[in-house]
Amino acid sequence: MRIVTLGTVFSLLAVMPLAAQLQVETGGGQARLDQMPSSSLTALGGSLDALLGRTHFQFAGNADDHIGLGVAGVMTAGLHYRFTPAGWNIELGPTGDVARGIGEQWAGTLAADLRARRDIGHFAMHAGWQQGIAFTGSQRSAWRRPSLGADVRFGAVKVGASWQGTVVQDSVLKTTGFFDPIAQPDTLYRAQVRDIHDVGVTLGWSAGVLSIGARVGRRFGVNILPQTWWEGHAALHVTPIMSVTMRTGRLAADALLALRGGQYTTLGVQLDLLQRTRPTQRPVTFAPAQIVRESPATVHLFFVLPLSTRRATLASDLTEWRAVELTRSNDGRWEVVLNASAGVHRLNISTDGSPWRAPPGLPAIEDGFGANVGLLVLDK
Amino acid sequence: MTSRLLLLLLCGALPLLAQDPRLTSRFAAPVALRLAATIDSAEREGLPTEPMVLRALEGQAKGATPDQIIAALARLGGALRTARTTLGPEAPAPELTTAAAALQAGVPQLRLSELRQLRGGMPVTAPLGAYLDLIARGASADGAWNRISDLARRRASDAEFVRLTPTDVDREAKPVRPPRPPANQGPP
Lengths: 380, 188
Prior knowledge:
The structure holds two protein chains of two kinds.
Chain A: E1 19-33, E2 38-52, E3 55-66, E4 70-83, E5 88-100, E6 106-120, E7 123-136, E8 139-154, E9 157-173, E10 189-207, E11 210-222, E12 227-237, E13 242-251, E14 262-275, E15 289-295, E16 298-303, E17 312-316, E18 324-325, E19 327-328, E20 334-339, E21 343-351, E22 364-366, E23 372-378
Antiparallel strand pairs in A: 1-2, 1-14, 2-3, 3-4, 4-5, 5-6, 6-7, 7-8, 8-9, 9-10, 10-11, 11-12, 12-13, 13-14, 15-16, 16-20, 17-18, 17-21, 19-20, 21-23, 22-23
Chain B: H1 2-17, H2 21-26, H3 29-44, H4 50-61, H5 66-87, H6 93-104, H7 109-119, H8 125-136, H9 141-153, H10 158-162, H11 166-173
Helix pairs in contact in B: 3-5, 4-5, 5-6, 5-7, 6-8, 7-9, 8-9, 9-11
């Protein structure tokens, strides 16, 4: 059962010329797997997401000890070639999983993976296709997995919707009467196709030191039991590298890896030793500052800040010099929406508690207090 | 005698009572009183006070001392005065504020005056903003000014100033090198 996605980033990557995110997380709580009694749970996991040139490597793994029942675990890895034609972010490459559920045999998948994403302002859409084979013990099955999704951001809130189809072609023991080697000389098995659809919606909110996210969906299809799944998580970012996390959810079974579904609730600690922009969302080229006049009364500001930035605040004439939090957008930039009228406004930003400074990409002048201030020119 | 003394004390306290609540909420009373006196003085001259209040709040946010804030207000008041002298007594507050920011950003008063003449009765806010923006985005100050003054001379609309990019300035500033014949190829 894939219970907790845990993460950390190793500091050795800090000296490497790549965008990377490495996280580890540990926690504990209660879980109840399908068809099994509930148990206490301890979990440990980690993930690495690294981009070197056009090569994108991703790895994630976690082990969950269901006290008294056994240990379950799963590892996922992918190596993709990334290219960006006409504003699209397209990745192509092999991906694979290895897993073992409680009381189950080892299972694994190997697939070719094609995925595409396009960001248009606050709107993003994505699509993917995986085609591969799955191994469960000595059995093999073929599968494909198309997916579609879109999300839109309103300030600190992001909502999205997605669909994922999974078609598994495998074989099962024939159940129609006795095996007749004359009438059915070929095999004891018959082909079975399971057509699984997962449709879901997501909601995320992040402001300051608190991030909250949730997703809920419905699984249905052919040769699969319909069920509702959901997950929720909250993270309190205590320090730039440490967060306290709470996760809860009810997950559906993994049809490819033979992992049971179930419910879980955990409380944990996440370490983020190297926080950089997510490679899949890393902007190729962005101006240091972008000013979007969304209405005559508001201005939407985007800034490109150092990749290691964990927290950014802004103070300005527009905020009457009270600090307001910037939020990290999907593309890695930091953004804020302010009420603003036409004119020249002064503003400063601070990252991770550093002194106020002029934002990148804006004209900077001496502020009269021994530092610099940025000028925001709004013409209308 | 006592009633006169009370009246005097009350008159002395009136400026404090009339202070901007943003000042009284963020500064100690004696500091707020000093700031109010400076800002009231500017108001009596007909200068816009909102930028001065905001400058005081900026100083407070940055941990400046009261003396530093008073000095900053005095400099801003001077820039607003210069802007009003240059643009005329009828210049509206947003225009004065923008012009004061431009002066404090290093725009010479002479250019401000020239811009006023070129624009006639039209506001100078958009050209000044565009000028500052061009410089911020890497255009040379002289190149940007030449482009701005050209547009102002042609009585361009505000939208035309807004559309200016550093590339437009560079295109104007850099002489175009004529193509060389093949036989003349060589190091520049």
